[in-house]
Amino acid sequence: MREKTVIAPHLLEWYDRHARVLPWRMPPGTGTGDPYRVWLSEVMLQQTTVAAVKAYFTRFTTLWPRVEDLAAAEDAAVMAEWAGLGYYARARNLLACARKVSESGGFPDTREGLGVLPGIGPYTSAAIAAIAFDRPETVVDGNVERVVSRLFAVETPMPGAKPILRDLADTLTPDTRPGDFAQAMMDLGATICTPRNPACGICPLVHDCKARALGIAADLPRKAPKKAKPLRQGVAWVGFTNGAVLTERRAEKGLLGGTLAFPSTGWDGSALPAPADADWREIGTVRHIFTHFALDLTVMTAPLRGAPRRGDLLALDHFNPKALPGLMRKVWDLAAPDGLARAGASARNRR
DNA sequence: CAAACGTGGCG
DNA sequence: TCGCCAAGTTT
């Protein structure tokens, strides 16, 4: 039987004084929040920084204050609002989840019930159950893994240590205020028990921390070395008519799935032809770093004459570059000045 | 179960 | 400049 380390009361005391004020968060000790806002924030926060999420959360909750409002939204509208936040499968799952929840009259109030919904995995189901429904679930994210690996000086490298850390975290979860406890662990990891240069001097758990005692806090959790990212190449075409630009909705599955884009070759060596016969001119190259590869995308522009073979002509009046994912934003920023000028020129030349 | 899946900030 | 990292999920 493992000796049980009781840190919850002490950590909650710290949280009561130092909790970050966040748009989706109830102040410490004030009970559970709106499940819709908890869910929306948790999905947005998956692998995404608090700073990046804030504006998106405010925008989404303004446009769609209730889950029923989001459920009724157009796919393209949600994708456009999500643009720039990354991991676009989240946006597609978000809508699918909103529609299921809306149909069934509200969010399930257990980890098990939440866990079967699209886009809600082990972390998010436990987080919503604890934060929105006061269930004593153990919430394990990257922060908690780091904090626990240090508290117990777990030297097993990640990701192999995950089940070990989860079991250890389980021994810490209190029956009272589990939602605040989960958020306290995450706040501690985000502000004090940070990946590099942890601020052990002001840590409320410094006397409970085995890694600190051993002088190895900053070295945990141990991680296997990462693989190098390959560099891939491709071509993107930005075609213009006098008042429109040639765009394309990417396939639902895969990279940038469901997002607005400019026609391009595949980025794995597959050579798709240009979407239209035109006087394509190379403008330059944009580099973009994805999670598992880097991409150099050569950008071509041209005024379009006949009908394109693929893609959709989108009137410039209805085209918002902010609705593009980051890569395509870079393509647009590079192509727009020259392309618009040439399209304008060609329109004049035709006269 | 390893790999796919975005993006921006920081040291 | 560049690698690391962030409130993970899906296949």
TrEMBL record:
One of its GO terms (biological process) is base-excision repair. It comes from the Bacteria. It catalyses: Hydrolyzes free adenine bases from 7,8-dihydro-8-oxoguanine:adenine mismatched double-stranded DNA, leaving an apurinic site. InterPro entries: DNA_glycosylase, Endonuclease3_FeS-loop_motif, Endouclease-III_FeS-bd_BS, HhH-GPD_domain, HhH_base_excis_C, MIG/MutY, MutY_C, NUDIX_hydrolase-like_dom_sf. The keyword Iron-sulfur applies. Its cofactor is [4Fe-4S] cluster. GO terms for molecular function: 4 iron, 4 sulfur cluster binding; 8-oxo-7,8-dihydroguanine DNA N-glycosylase activity; adenine/guanine mispair binding; metal ion binding; oxidized purine DNA binding; purine-specific mismatch base pair DNA N-glycosylase activity. Binds 1 [4Fe-4S] cluster. Signal peptide: none annotated. Residues 44-191 form the HhH-GPD domain. Gene3D superfamilies: Helix-hairpin-Helix base-excision DNA repair enzymes (C-terminal), Hypothetical protein, domain 2, Nucleoside Triphosphate Pyrophosphohydrolase. Keywords: 4Fe-4S, DNA damage, DNA repair, Glycosidase, Hydrolase, Iron, Iron-sulfur, Metal-binding. Its EC number is 3.2.2.31. It holds the Pfam family HhH-GPD. Belongs to the Nth/MutY family. Adenine glycosylase active on G-A mispairs. MutY also corrects error-prone DNA synthesis past GO lesions which are due to the oxidatively damaged form of guanine: 7,8-dihydro-8-oxoguanine (8-oxo-dGTP). This is Adenine DNA glycosylase.
